[in-house]
DNA sequence: AGAGGCGCAGAACGACCGTTCTGCATTGCG
DNA sequence: CGCAATGCAGAACGGTCGTTCTGCGCCTCT
């Protein structure tokens, strides 16, 4: 097992365990056991638990955004979607995510809520994720370019965030539908 | 010190410590020290940590909703506000809350994200809080009565939730302004 | 063969956690 | 006064945590 494989296994284990059960309640022993990688190597690859958590979140951010972008892009091709169609398909993707059996809300908000603003690399990873998602929404809203892209993107970001938390707490995917309807109304309020 | 006073001190301490630092990282010893109440009495009043957390959240829910309702009501009197004005003043209240020095996001979502859906009395308290806030928004939206009150209330609830989390993560009160503008647009999209 | 380097499993360390226990002090009553 | 009841501070218990250490096995090289 080379370092890349060990790292991948550790991040898989971290993702599975921390997302399902929170961060502080999962010890490094359990990450080791789940990953099948020794503690010594774990600490060689990630100098502390905070580093491991931040790394898992950064990898998750990439995968999450890539999954969303792929979906929006494919739907745009299938349906010849315009700006509105592309922005609304974000919420269709949300609906699918909320229905996944291991859905447990936003890993980034959960980690931030658990560990707080002073949690160094973890808080940084969370903030960067949110900034990148916002940027993606601005890009979608700005195609074709318009003066209100940032404003609408910010509003849709709040709907996305609120729907994710609400879906986790209520255990229902309905907030995706609610958010989509709100997004449609907001887009309709600002025609081209 | 009677039981009521001890209970109040314990809930004050719990609120201060758990909201600021998360739940698992604050031991019962520290709650005891902060409250100035013995561990024996603490356990007599709250049989377990979960009970204490749930009790603090339930008290916080009452205070939070009361503060919001008072603000909305006072603003309605001051400005002769109609349905739209009352619903929008929810977001004005949010803006003030986000500016408080100890603001750290939604205590309910944070606790849920940290402890998970299986956390018994805590998860129950979180779900009930969300349901009560939703009901309050439905009441605001239904005055005067309309067929779309639940729909608009659900949409505003997502904005409220998304703004709270985003404000905590970004450390900025701006999401309240963004949410208010979105709420205004949603209300304008459905005139009387 | 022997020596050195590397990596492992899991023990060890010190800290913290949730909860219960214990020696002691205080209070109230007869 | 003596006795019983009550409550306290904080020790104790058993468990878990993050991190480092140690004895051992394996591999490579001379």
What is the first-to-last residue Cα distance of chain A?
A: 55 Å
Shape of chain A: elongated
CATH topology of the largest domain in chain A: Tetracycline Repressor, domain 2
Largest sheet properties of chain A: none
CATH homologous superfamily designation of the largest domain in chain A? Tetracycline Repressor, domain 2
Number of domains of chain A: 2
How much strand of chain A?
under 5%
What's this entry about, in short?
Two copies of one chain form a homodimer. Chain A has about 190 residues and is mainly alpha-helical. Chain A has helices spanning about 5-20, 30-35, 40-45, 50-80, 85-100, 105-115, 120-140, 150-170, 175-190.
Describe the protein in words.
The structure is a homodimer of 192-residue chains. Chain A has 192 residues and is mainly α. The first copy, chain A, has two domains: 1-47, Arc Repressor Mutant, subunit A (Orthogonal Bundle); 54-189, Tetracycline Repressor, domain 2. Chain A has nine helices and no strands. The first copy, chain A, has helices spanning 3-21, 28-35, 39-45, 49-79, 83-98, 107-115, 120-141, 149-170, 174-189. In chain A, helix 1 crosses helix 4 and helix 8 (149-170) packs antiparallel against helix 9 (174-189). Chain A is elongated and about 60 Å long. The mean pLDDT of chain A is 94. The interface between A and B is large, with 47 and 47 residues. The first copy, chain A, binds a DNA duplex (30 and 30 nucleotides) through residues 24-25, 27-29, 32, 38-41, 43, 48-49.
